[in-house]
Every structure is written in C-alpha cells, then in structure tokens.
UniProtKB/TrEMBL annotation:
Stated name of the protein: Molybdopterin biosynthesis protein MoeB
GO CC, any one term: cytosol
Native source organism of the sequence: Mesosutterella multiformis
Domain THIF-type NAD/FAD binding fold positions: 10-245
Protein family (similarity comment): Belongs to the HesA/MoeB/ThiF family.
C-alpha cells in the first residue's frame, strides 16, 4: 500500500479520473523491464519512475559516452564511462525514492533474456538494434508478456504494443520480419533529441495504460511519428500465418 507521502506525491496524477488511487496502486504493484538505457530508455524509464512504478529492471550492457549525453537523460558528465544500467539506476532513484531499481549489466540474448523477462509484468523495449528487438519479441511471446516496442531514427519513429496475454495477437515479427528488416542505427544515420523524448514518452504512456487498464493502448497497431513534417499515423497490424514466431497469433 502507498504511504501518505506517496499519495501526496502522485496527487495530480491520481486526480485523473481514469486512473485514481486504484490505478496508482496498480502502478506500484507492477514490475517493468526496460531494455536499453539510451535515447529511448532514458525518457521511458524516467517517466515510469516519476509516474510511480513499483520496480524497474533496467537492462543495458553498454557504457556511457560523451556523445550520449545530448539525448540520454539518465546520464551525466560525471558518469561517463559507467555502465548505463548502473548510471540509470542512480538517476531513477533520485527522481523517486519509493522506486525499486535493479540494474542488469549483461548482454541481452534469448538465453539471458528469458529468466529476466519472467520476473517482469511488462517489457518495454528501447533497443537500437534489430537482432535484440527480435529476440525480445520471441521471448515475450513465449512467456506471454505484454511488450511495448519502439524505434527512432533521424526524424521518424514508431511505437507498438503486443499484448501476448491475449489470443490472436500478432507479434513484432509479423509486422517487421527479421529476414527483411534493415538494422538502421542512430550512430550512423543520426536522430533528433526531441524525437527520442517523444517516442520514449509514448512507450511509457503505453506501458502505464497496460499496467493500469486505463485508456486504449496501441494493441496490434503501429503509430508512425514524423516530427519533421508533423505527421502522426496509426495502422492496424494483423497476425501473419507464416510468421515463424507466433504462427499467426497463436
């Protein structure tokens, strides 16, 4: 249960009728696995922490570099050279002392991910490479864990929700087959700081909706965001019967 000071902390948010105190308590009872503490993971994790998440498992094996600091708000100049998950854990505890944070510093693959995801209620994918993104999709489908996934490059991004607790749910591979997806990286193509903030915030918002049951999550949909041209579009996704992961949402 929340302490009196916690209720005071989240008062403005609890005043939202769709959330209320019951929804706030659901957030406190939820464990989020945020994979990636970079451009997307920084705003996503910070907003989940500020909103009142009970626990965040923050996973990233990379180290903080100077060129990260313009968009990866979890980190500071003083923590350059530190592991990103450990640096991020410091920032998250500073923003919310009621939060439990567990940094995970090992690399993510099918083998290491499964026991990690098994301890989470919701997985928030904030990676910057296709191989890891597809591994997360496979494990979440296997464990029936709801997955929020996003990407950002240059001035465009995308965000989707796959709630594998429900039947007939397509997976990430249905929409973006692994053998067809190009591995586009911000390190070579660039990305706008404002875009990573927007996409990370959208991921946090979708994860909060999944945790609390309020609103309408982007289940089985993809939202495309083009900040350069002020273009926001939502498309429905359908299960692919030939998908090697979910075999058409099964």
């Amino acid at each position: 249960m929340m302490e009196a000071k916690e209720k005071e902390r989240y008062l403005r948010q609890m005043n939202v009728a769709e959330l209320g105190e019951k929804g706030q308590q659901k957030l406190k009872d939820t464990t989020f696995l945020v994979i990636g503490a970079g451009g997307l993971g920084s705003p996503a994790a910070l907003l989940l922490a500020a909103a009142g998440a009970g626990k965040i498992i923050l996973a990233d094996f990379d180290t903080v570099e100077v060129n990260n600091l313009s968009r990866q708000f979890l980190h500071t100049d003083a923590r350059v050279g530190m592991n990103k998950a450990e640096s991020g854990a410091i920032a998250l505890k500073e923003i919310n002392p009621y939060l439990t944070v567990e940094p995970y510093t090992e690399s993510i693959n099918d083998e290491t991910l499964e026991p990690l995801a098994a301890r989470a209620d919701i997985v928030v994918e904030c990676c910057d490479n296709s191989k890891t993104r597809h591994a997360i999709n496979r494990v979440c489908h296997k464990l029936r864990k709801p997955l929020v996934t996003s990407g950002a490059i240059r001035g465009a991004g995308q965000v989707s929700v796959f709630d594998f607790r429900e039947s007939d749910t397509p997976c990430y591979d249905c929409a973006f087959p692994e053998d067809e997806e190009k591995d586009l990286k911000a390190s070579t193509l660039g990305v706008l700081t404002s875009l990573t903030g927007i996409m990370g915030a959208l991921e946090a918002s979708e994860a909060i909706k999944l945790a609390t049951g309020m609103g309408k999550p982007l289940k089985n949909q993809v939202m495309l965001v083009d900040v350069l041209n002020n273009d926001f579009q939502i498309f429905n996704l359908k299960p692919n019967p030939e998908c090697p992961v979910c075999h058409g949402g099964k």
